[in-house]
């Protein structure tokens, strides 16, 4: 369960009373430089950073008990610099975080933005045409965590599993066949 600070809790109470309170998704992508993008028409200030206004869309952020659902992020009208970053080899596996920002309609300030989803990016898809768009799927961090980890038949792995066991220590120069 996500908890809200007192200011966001007050906004939530107003929303439950029937008032229209905007909840905006903030997307943070950790590449060589961190991208902070807002799914709204104006830039937002939160956590000491400016979240740039884009036409970014985020697929449904769902959290089912026991399931790790991925999301798809689409950035229409991508600039040349954004397209060049999409071709970068380091994009696959980069961290993606989605926050749900509670925005005060009176001041336009973000009251709170709890983490709604986190995971790792997969290979992006670039749609060319009159307006270039970048779409990238992301895998939930829970799915990454429960994935079986490879084990290596090395001395380091043996020491991790059985400290003090020297059965895999060898010297290739002296142990190699003549």
Describe the protein in words.
The chain is of the alpha+beta class. It has 5 helices and 11 strands, in the order H-E-E-E-E-E-E-H-E-E-E-E-E-H-H-H. The longest helix is centred in the N-terminal third of the chain and has 11 residues. The N and C termini lie far apart (63 Å).
Count of DSSP strands: 11
Helix-strand makeup class: alpha+beta
Cα distance, first to last residue?
Answer: 63 Å
Low-confidence stretches: none
Portion in beta strands: 25-35%
Name the average pLDDT: 81
User: Gyration radius, to the nearest Å?
Assistant: 23 Å
The portion of residues assigned to helices is: 10-25%
Number of helices: 5
Order of helices and strands: HEEEEEEHEEEEEHHH
Shape: elongated
The major beta sheet can be summarized as:
11 strands, mixed
List key phrases describing it.
178 residues, alpha+beta
Q: Briefly, what is this?
A:
The protein is α+β, with helices and mostly antiparallel strands and 178 residues long. The chain contains five helices and eleven strands; from the N terminus they run αββββββαβββββααα.
